[in-house]
Amino acid sequence: MIKRIVLLPALSILLLALVAGCAAPQVTQQPAPSPTPAATQPPQQKSPAATSAPPESIGINPEDIILDDQGLVDSWQAVLVPATPFDNMHAPGPSGLPAHIQVLFNGVSNPKSREPGGPVIYIIPVDAYRELWDSHDSQAVSSQIQQIEALRSQLPDPKPVRGLPVLPIEETFGINDFVTQLRPVAGDAASASHNGFRFIGRFAMDATPLTNAGLRYIYQGFSNDGRYLVTFFFPVRTDALPDDLEAVSTEDMDAFNSDGLGYLADKAAMLDELPATAWEPDLTRLDALIASLAIK
User: Mean pLDDT for the chain?
Assistant: First the structure.
């Protein structure tokens, strides 16, 4: 029987450098020769990841994951990632995750090998995540989970243009200073993201004009039973923005220097009007990818 996953502001222009390390733990392997990169997955196929009992049980196994990658990647592979302890003693900021599943893409089979900002899906046990941080007198994760829950239930109007909650903290390299294309992810009864939401956003360490650099499709949601946090990150771009700071126009640079927050809000409004096809990849295909996520 398939369990379906259903898959949240004020900010000054001086950004806070609360970020988390993105290093992920080594995937536990059964005693066997090193695996070769995963083959491209056809639609609605089970993950080839795990072939033995998981080192830490989270109630589901990597081989139970079902996904249609929509032809957006060469391959995908689900892996069980052991827990990493809470750590608030090292830069760039607090970090820590319970044992969880990551879905990796394009031949990556080890979370440590994934480039920062590269595509990934996280499936994280909610209670264990809360307990890990709460037990160290940090309410950061519990607060973010509560905000994600509120946003998935009802998106605000007017739409926020910055400061949305995003987990895991390991994916937040700075402050979320820009948000556009905030939408619920539509799905049928079999959807894995029935009540989640997605947006295009960035996390910045410094105040800069908006470019394609660092922009990501970000999904946040929960499983049907609320036991798992499901999040998805995928880099995106659009021809409506320059690719880097060197290509920023004088007009945009002057607007940013005059009123940074107003400039970013104007850009958010402009980009929010773009059709899904104006983005690379097409946002409807990214929505379909995360909506296809299911657990056997």
Answer: 84
Selection from 137, 119, 160, 122 nearest residue 11 by Cα: 160
pLDDT digits (tens, 9 = 90+) for 41-92: 445 554 544 444 445 789 999 999 999 999 999 999 999 999 999 999 887 7
Query: Which of 211, 205, 213, 280 shows the shortest CA–CA distance to 249?
Result: 211
Instruction: Say whether pLDDT at 112 is over 60.
Output: yes
Contact between residue 94 and residue 138 where contact means Cβ atoms under 8 Å apart = yes
> What residues have CB less than 8 Å from 74, skipping those under 6 apart?
40, 105, 106, 107
DSSP-derived secondary structure for the chain: -PEEP-------SS----------PPPP--SSSPPPPPPPPPTTEE-S---S--SS--SS-GGGEEE--TTSSS-EEEEEE--EEEE-SSTT--EEE-SEEEEEETT--SGGGSPTT--EEEEEEHHHHHHHHHTTT--HHHHHHHHHHHHHH---SSPPSS----S-GGG--SEEEEEEEEEE----TT-S-TT-EEEEEEEESS-----STT-EEEEEEE-TTS-EEEEEEEE-EETTS-SSGGG--HHHHHHHHH-HHHHHHHHHHHHHTS-GGGEES-HHHHHHHHHT-EE-
Residue 33 has pLDDT above 70, yes or no: no
Reply yes or no on whether the pLDDT at 35 is more than 70.
no
State how far the Cα of 263 lies from the Cα of 229, in Å rounded to an integer.
Answer: 33
Q: Which residue has the higher pLDDT, 173 or 128?
A: 128
Cis peptide before 82 (omega within 30 of 0): no
Q: Taking a C-beta distance cutoff of 8 angstroms, is the pair 253, 284 a contact? A: no
pLDDT at 56: 74
Which tokens hold the place of 173?
């390299």
Whole-angstrom distance, CA of residue 10 vs CA of residue 152 = 20
